[in-house]
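Lab meeting, item 3. Inverse folding demo.
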């Protein structure tokens, strides 16, 4: 079973994929670019291919934009890509709770995946995304 999820970005950190969701203009590509600067590897920008392998959901580059990431006001940057098991969904939203009591769950290909809402407009966003991966992401 395989599916292309549009309008998301996806970055691997330490072998685990973070699927980044949010409304247009919330900074999905900008967060992905900042995570690349912190040692992450691009899986997909503006889409990701998801497939089930045993108990895992694997994120792979989408064929139509493989190896490209949008750098707003600059253009498309070519970068190497990778694939990795999905560990967490990061939702960029202005409604993110300041001190949540846990995390939500998203269903991807029928599998539950931890989901954390983050406020998008902060310079600490890549640090928060990494902390969410470490605290709540699947191993």
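The presenter then showed the designed sequence:
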């Amino acid at each position: 079973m395989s599916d292309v999820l549009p309008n998301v970005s996806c970055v691997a950190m330490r072998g685990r994929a973070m699927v980044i969701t949010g409304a247009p203009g919330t900074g999905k590509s900008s967060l992905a670019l900042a995570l690349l600067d912190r040692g992450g590897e691009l899986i997909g920008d503006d889409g990701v291919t998801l497939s089930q392998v045993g108990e895992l959901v694997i994120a792979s580059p989408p064929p139509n934009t493989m190896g490209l990431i949008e750098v707003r006001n600059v253009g498309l940057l070519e970068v190497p890509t990778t694939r990795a098991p999905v560990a967490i969904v990061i939702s960029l939203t202005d409604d993110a709770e300041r001190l949540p009591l846990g995390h939500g769950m998203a269903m991807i290909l029928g599998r539950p995946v931890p989901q954390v809402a983050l406020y998008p407009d902060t310079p600490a966003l890549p640090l928060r995304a990494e902390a969410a991966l470490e605290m709540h992401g699947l191993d």
